[in-house]
Amino acid sequence: MRARIALLRSMGTARPYQDTKPLEIVEADLEDPGFGEVRVKMAAAGLCHSDLSVINGDRPRDMPVALGHEASGVIEAVGPGVTRFSPGDHVVLVFVPSCGHCVPCASGRPALCEPGAAAAAKGTLLGGERRLRYKGEAINHHIGVSAFSTHAVVSENSCIRIDKSIPLDRAALLGCAVLTGVGAVLNSGELKMGESCAIVGLGGVGLAGLLGAVAAGAETIIAVDMAEHKRALAQELGATHAIDPTKEGAVAEVKALTRGGVDLAVELAGAAPALKFAYEITRRGGTTVTGGLPNPRAEFTIPAVSLTVGEQTLKGSYVGSCVPVRDIPRFAAMMQAGKLPIEKLMTHRITLDEINEGFERLATGEAIRQVVVF
Ligand SMILES: NC(=O)c1ccc[n+]([C@@H]2O[C@H](COP(=O)([O-])OP(=O)(O)OC[C@H]3O[C@@H](n4cnc5c(N)ncnc54)[C@H](O)[C@@H]3O)[C@@H](O)[C@H]2O)c1
Ligand SMILES: [Zn+2]
Ligand SMILES: [Zn+2]
């Protein structure tokens, strides 16, 4: 069949994107699902900084690629061997398919699935295939999903079923912003009721993490970003304090507010200076979690002895250290109960044809989460 997709042919296009249009909307050929694969009719797909990082070259991928990785949809067809899904099921797509059998999967850490990571690096689905072609040329899949498409063929291991009562536009955010942000706070950071927490970087992922900190009952929640309007939104969402990290004395201010630093600082900005700030505001004996994805050349240095004398914990968090089959239904239930009001992060609803304008708004920082509604 034919699918309309957002195709990226080269990285590093100059801005503004509404003029230079790095993403081209084309009709591509989509093969039928193969063994263990399903075809999803996309309902909604969110614009995440990780997509922007492919467009601007910070996260290099093989071209051409059908971009997008945060999405929800409805199963339309199933390939041979698929037993867990049927047409009509509502699903959230997860950008690391887990094979279930490699060492990380078997250790309960599917976010680190090795065949999943290898397929993502090659631009294939988990089974090793590419199912999209444009004018005869094979198109790479973006981290097993390729969400900015009317239809996508994906591994069934990239899908998590959700209850049909959950609005599909919000459900899209469960696949990345919520899994990553809330997971970084609750799973990687293990935030406990009454603790103090800082979120550094207040985009869609960081603000989802902030909602997680509010839901977890953190007593002091410090929102950190240089963008004033994002700090203001964070305070509306439950942050007790907001700090501009570029302001003179910002680290000392956090330490004064928290009697020596926060129990947990979570970096969700994707910039090395943000990680440095998060580390510096973490209390002695506290934990710094980093979930941002800066350019691979970016480095971060700390005094080596500080880890020892402060008994600091410094921890990475990919996909929020989530187990999607456990955490998507868990976070969806929190959302349905009003404890994760992620609709408040959805600033724009756009069509597929408006996607370049959307990425320009993400690059300038004007938008939080924008969702393509199909
Ligand atoms: N770990 C994962 O699995 C995973 C998944 C999704 C996204 N990400 C990454 O998370 C990051 C955030 O994604 P997003 O979609 O929310 O991006 P975004 O562009 O919407 O938000 C990033 C925010 O960080 C702020 N920021 C930049 N430098 C800062 C600094 N030094 N101090 C404080 N704030 C700073 C920006 O002003 C912006 O508000 C990106 O790097 C993205 O690639 C990681
Ligand atoms: Zn993402
Ligand atoms: Zn695996």
Notable traits:
single chain; Quinone Oxidoreductase, Chain A, domain 1; Rossmann fold; seven-stranded mixed beta sheet; binds nicotinamide-adenine-dinucleotide; binds zinc ion
Average pLDDT rating: 98
At the fold tier of CATH, the topology name of the largest domain is Quinone Oxidoreductase, Chain A, domain 1
In N-to-C order, the SSE pattern is: EHEEHEEEHHEEEEHEHEHEHEHEHEHEHE
What is the approximate shape? globular
Strand content is: 25-35%
Structural class: alpha/beta
- Highest-level CATH class of the largest domain: Alpha Beta
**Bound molecule types:** nicotinamide-adenine-dinucleotide, zinc ion
Please state the second-level CATH architecture of the largest domain.
Alpha-Beta Complex
Mind telling me the CATH superfamily name of the largest domain?
Medium-chain alcohol dehydrogenases, catalytic domain
* Whole-angstrom Rg: 20 Å
Q: List low-pLDDT spans.
A: none
How far apart are the termini? Answer: 17 Å
Q: Helical stretch count? A: 12
Q: Specify the helix fraction band.
A: 25-40%
Biggest β-sheet strands, sense, barrel: 7 strands, mixed
* Number of discrete domains: 2
Q: Tell me the total number of β-strands.
A: 18
Describe the structure.
The protein is an alpha/beta fold. It folds into 2 domains: 2-176 and 321-373, Alpha-Beta Complex (Quinone Oxidoreductase, Chain A, domain 1), CATH 3.90.180.10; 190-316, NAD(P)-binding Rossmann-like Domain (Rossmann fold). The protein is 30% helix and 26% strand. The protein contains 12 helices and 18 strands. The protein has helices at 17-20, 49-55, 103-106, 114-122, 168-188, 204-215, 228-236, 250-257, 272-280, 304-309, 324-336, 355-364; strands at 2-8, 23-30, 37-46, 65-66, 70-78, 90-93, 132-134, 137-141, 151-155, 159-161, 196-200, 220-224, 241-243, 262-267, 282-290, 313-316, 346-350, 369-373. The longest helix has 21 residues, at 168-188. It binds nicotinamide-adenine-dinucleotide (NAD) and zinc ion (2 copies). The site of nicotinamide-adenine-dinucleotide (NAD) has 34 residues, from helix 2, helix 5, helix 6 and helix 9.
